[in-house]
Amino acid sequence: MEARAKQPDLQRDAPAPAAQLRVREIGEADLPAIAALLSRGFAFRSIDYWLRGLKRHERSSRPADYPTFGYCLDHGGVPVGVILLLFSEVQSGAETTIRCNVSSWYVEAPFRAFAPLLVRIATKDRRVTYFNITPAPHTWSTNEAQGFSVYCKGQIYGALALSRPVRRARVEVFSEAATEGLSDYETDLLRRHAAFGCLSLVVRDGANARPFVFQKHRVKDVFPVYRLIYCRDIGDLKRFAGNVGRFLARRGGLLVRFDANAPVSGIVGWYSEKRGRKYVKGPRPPLLGDLAFTEAALFDS
After folding, report:
1. How far apart are alpha carbons 17 and 59 in whole angstroms?
2. CA distance 184 to 111
């Protein structure tokens, strides 16, 4: 029997085309089993890694009427497949968009014939912008076959501290006592990402304030790098590269990793398309430099 014959129409608890097999929404009680399943699929990640990120997401504000964690493929009451869906409500100017970070899709080997069913159920709502920020190269063609298109080709590792700083501009760690020039949405975003363990910053240039979020990590567990998680406009990073780079260098990060579709003039570094590709399907592709409320912030911080 073809999988599409049993495909549910966004149902919460839908039968799949095999005995004792169904696709259903992940509940809180499933989290230990889901974390164990993911740790088998991604052997370099621990169960604690997955549980920490899932709990952070559960505690975060999310749009109503969407799955909290995503869907699982259930065989006789045991999750044998999972697709994590991290829904968030984001703002760009006066526009509000519901988007979903399609994260960490894995199905146990005996059930992989039904893996496409998870994706079809997970990405059916045309009002939602779905995006995948960590597609492995061997899955690129699969993403494209599922209707996703590339919105980010690669990434740059930049030595921002070598750029010329803007005179009189200053960089400060976000504080609830100094939110002038930030929208309510940006203030909340900086606050919440700081709680995730990210570094939330504000660059002030006269009366103007520009928000940034960075996440510190180590390449090959050795070399410290700051990853750009959020900025209002990627042009802000270029303009204030010298100021931000010097600030981050004093905190142990000489390089900054950020999304790009080409080398950026004025920033010393190297651009690569071997990694960093990102896919999107839906009405409002994310802006470069906006990974707010994604797995990058929730799981890796």
Report:
1. 34
2. 45
In 3D space, the residue among 241, 245, 276 whose CA is nearest the CA of residue 258 turns out to be 276
Query: From CA 97, how far away is CA 107, in angstroms rounded?
Result: 30
Provide the whole-model pTM.
Answer: 0.89
Alpha carbon distance 33, 50 (integer Å): 11
Residue for token digits 């063609």? 141
Which of helix, strand or coil describes residue 276?
Answer: coil
pLDDT at 3 over 70: no
Please tell me the distance from the alpha carbon of residue 101 to that of residue 185, in angstroms, as a whole number: 19
Structure tokens that stand for 300 in this block: 């890796």
Whether residue 219 has pLDDT greater than 80:
no
Q: How far does CA 46 lie from the centroid of its chain?
A: 19
Q: Mean pLDDT over residues 8-37, rounded? A: 74
| Mean pLDDT across 93-100 | 87
Kindly report the length of the chain.
301
Rounded Cα–Cα distance for residues 138 and 131 (Å): 17
Which position has the higher pLDDT, 162 or 122? 162
Provide the β-strand partners of residue 13.
24
Residue 82, strand partner residues: 72, 106
Q: What is the CA radius of gyration of the chain?
A: 20
Backbone angles phi, psi at 182, to 5 degrees: -105, 145
What pLDDT is attached to residue 300?
A: 86
Q: Are the C-beta atoms of residues 104 and 118 closer than 8 Å to each other? A: no
pLDDT-derived band at 297 (thresholds 50, 70, 90) equals very high
- Angle among Cα 196, 198, 204 to the nearest 5 degrees reads 130
DSSP H or E stretch at residue 51? helix 47-59
